[in-house]
Description:
Blueprint: H1 7-34, H2 45-99, H3 106-127, E1 130-131, E2 134-135, E3 147-149, E4 156-158, E5 166-170, E6 173-176, H4 189-202, H5 211-258, H6 262-286
Antiparallel strand pairs: 1-2, 3-4, 5-6
Amino acid sequence: MSMIPSQMSLSALMTTSLDQYQTQLSAMEQTLTTGNNISSPSDNPTGVASLINVNATLSSYNQYKSNITEGKTVASLANASMTQAVSIVQQISSVLVQAGGPGVTASKAKSLASQISGLEQSLLGVANTTYLGQAIFAGTTGGTTAYSVSQSTGQVVYKGNSTAPSVAAAPGVQLNTSIADPFQASTGGIFAAIQTAISDLNSNPPQFSTALGGVQTQLKNLENNAAQAGINYDQFQVMSQQVAGAVTQATNEVGAIQNINTAKLTTQYQQELNNYQVALYATSQLNQPTLAHYL
């Protein structure tokens, strides 16, 4: 035999239902206010785990992005400096071609040697280019100077190491920001060739036969290193775009987990509010006193 619910039991059920509606509406209001699907781990344990993983990925790629920005600045400076260095050595080569021309006297040769000496000082300045106080062509030593003139021999000596500086640009990817000893002073290089040329022009009588050849040989080596500096910079350009894309993707994934669909949740909230108002009205009607209350 089925039981017919009493008015009091129906009232209790309706009151419980109203409490549930209020709890759900309060939760929706908080979510709409914060804009977050997850305010505490208990909201969505699985979502929290996913959010932690994606945030870790996003943090890593933001660090790679920062590394690339810094590294690209140094690579750009190295590229520009090497281009300038090639230009200076080309000027020196032109002066040596002039020195080997007809009718060049010893006095004229000394004048040209002085001109080359000035260009060599300019080249030394470029070779000691710094970024944030560190010489960019000194490898990983972190020193303020990559090249210096020996007080005893007058030769330009290299003060760095042979390890090219690099930055982490992506998982398992290191990009070189510069070149260690691109002027090859540790093995003679362009400075030794220039000093030989100056010495030859200052000799009496001046010597022209080997000076030009030595400089031009080292110029080719310098041009190769300049080309590598350009390649290094181009690699940063490409990797910068790839990592920026990874950051955008990870950011979108965080948003998909964390951020609410405002339009959808607003519709759900309105529907829940309508249901609550209907239940509230029904409860108020059920709880109105009847003649039975007074019998």
